[in-house]
Structure formats: structure tokens, C-alpha cells
Amino acid sequence: MGDARSTMVAGAATMIGMRGVGATSVRELAKHTGAPLGSTYHYFPGGKEQLVAEAVAWVSDRIETLLRESDSALDALDAFVASWRRLLESTGYHASCPVLAVAAEEPALGDDGEPVSTPAFARWHRLIAATLEKDGIAADEARGLAWTVLASVEGAVVLSRSQRSAEPLDAVAAHLRSVVAAAVARVP
Amino acid sequence: MGDARSTMVAGAATMIGMRGVGATSVRELAKHTGAPLGSTYHYFPGGKEQLVAEAVAWVSDRIETLLRESDSALDALDAFVASWRRLLESTGYHASCPVLAVAAEEPALGDDGEPVSTPAFARWHRLIAATLEKDGIAADEARGLAWTVLASVEGAVVLSRSQRSAEPLDAVAAHLRSVVAAAVARVP
């Protein structure tokens, strides 16, 4: 992906995380990133639908890489939380997860649009479950715990943004660390 | 609140939970509820901003009542989860919490709009913490645990909607039940 294009996709992801899909458009993206409108349309001839799909894929890939590269379930949890903390802090607590924003608005792309949050969340869930299984936790328990990790971090990011405070994310991160550590400690 | 007006506010809440703030308007609400456009504008002269504020207040009041009327922290948790489960089931897993949708899109009402998710989530958090304290849990622990309960249920509702499956909500509800029960059991 070219640098200019990549910058625009990243900008679209942040924009969706800040304002949702409804307020996102090729025109708004050009304004947001300071790119010429013509080049923005050139990169995204499919308009909003293409923009949203590529932004979700971009975020999803980054999270997947970070989960795959973790050495343990606790490392994966810490990296996942840290990634959202960076987004919150770099936007003054004005953005939350773009995939969650898309999920909350679907069918934002019209009734015929392919849901783009479904496969992204499903992949994150499987990767979190895989880090738990690698630490010896049984598949069934890992599957349930991975939903808890994903749901509570995603929820906490929205709450921290809504309250303009790290408190919800801090509370959830501390809870999940102790739950994951206890589950790993129980492994025979 | 008159019956017709109340039905429209409830309809607006469901609509926001299904399509987000971006796709919500007085015109769309009239279509969605089958009410005449004129009477819809009559009830909501403030347009989308009024619609969203009243829908959030309506949802918020219902959740607050349900939390206040619970006899114990576990009862409150069960009632909170059951309320979102009903929304998911009654919409074929096509809606999530309207307050979360608003939070994910703010400033959906423009940069000058008053954030409406902030006080709603703050009140839910305080009421959940109060149910935990009433069961004997210390204020500090109750505060942290209440963020975990709120974040993980809100996150699970979006995930269940995104996956069109009760699995994320079921997993989170089971986890929270055991965590809350254990916290209450530790009370001296």
C-alpha cells in the first residue's frame, strides 16, 4: 500500500472511531487528512463503502498482528489494552474502536452491504482464545474467556471515551489481568 | 408523556440501537414507526438532537428503574443482562444499546452538542456500584467491579449483535455472575 494511501486509510479508521460511519465520507476524509479531494476519490472510487471496509481491515490486521506476536495470554491482553489506550490518549479520549462503531451502526452501508465487523471480531476472538489455549487453558474455557476479554475491553474503551477518563479501562484491565492470571495458574 | 409520543421515543431508541445516530432522523422515525410525518415533527420540533436526547433519557430511565428495584447485586446483574437480551432477541440480533451507539458516534450532534451518553453511563455505573455496596462490598472494590460489569455487558451486546449469536452475551453473563457471587461471598 502506498504511503499516501496508507495514511488515508489510517485517517479513515480514526475518523470512524471518532464520529462513526454516519459522519464519515470521502469528502470528510479529505478534510480530516488535509489530502486533495481528487486524490482521495482516486484512492477510494467505491466511496464510503470502500473506505469503511478498508479502515476496518486495516485496524483488524494491526490487532491480529499484535495478538499473534504475543508470547503469552497476559502479553496479548496487555498489548490489546495498550493499543486502545494509545488511541484514547492520542485523541484526547475522543475516539473508540472503529470496528465497534461500525458494528453499532450496521447496516450503515445499506441493507445489502456486507457486514464488515462480523469477521473482524470473530478473528480477534479466535486469536485471543488461541493465546489462552497456548498457555494451557482448555478450549471450552478459552472460548468463553476470550469473549469476556474482547467484550469488556471493547466496552471499556467506549466508556472511557464517554467519560473522558482512563478509569473504566484501568478497572477492566486490572480485572482481566487477575482473571487470566488465575486461569493460567489453575492449569495442571 | 402521551401514548403516541412515548411510542415514538421508544421507536427512536430502537432505531438508534439498530442504525446509529447518523442514520436517525425525524423523517426516518416517521417511516420506522408508521406515524404521520407532520405529527412526528410536531412532537420533535428540535429535530434529530431532541430525538436522540429523549431516546437516551428514555432508555436510561428504564435501566435506572430496573437497577434501583433489584434486591441484590446478582438480581441487578441478571435484570440488566435480561433487558439487553430482550432487545437482541426482539430485533433478531439487529440492535444493540442505543446509549453505546450514541457514545461511539459523539459528537454526532455536532461539535457544540451536549454529550448525552456521558451522564447516562455515569448514572448506570453509580447504580450498579450501589447494588454491590448494598451487598456489603467495599466502596472502592464496588466502583471498579461496576465498571467491569457495565463495560463487559455493553461490549457483549455489540458482539452478540455483530455475530448474530447469544454466545458472547452468555459467556460474559456467566463470568460476571461468578465474579459478583465470589465478591459477595468474600464479604466478612
Index terms:
76% helix, 0% strand, mainly alpha, elongated, homodimer, 188 residues
Q: Any overview of this molecule?
A:
The structure is a homodimer of 188-residue chains. Chain A is mainly alpha-helical and 188 residues long. Chain A has a domain at 56-185: Tetracycline Repressor, domain 2. The first copy, chain A, contains nine helices and no strands. Chain A has helices spanning 3-19, 26-33, 37-43, 47-68, 73-90, 98-105, 117-134, 139-163, 167-185. The mean pLDDT of chain A is 93.
Outline the secondary-structure elements.
The structure is a homodimer of 188-residue chains.
Chain A: H1 3-19, H2 26-33, H3 37-43, H4 47-68, H5 73-90, H6 98-105, H7 117-134, H8 139-163, H9 167-185
Helix pairs in contact in A: 1-2, 1-4, 1-6, 4-5, 4-7, 5-8, 5-9, 6-7, 7-8, 8-9
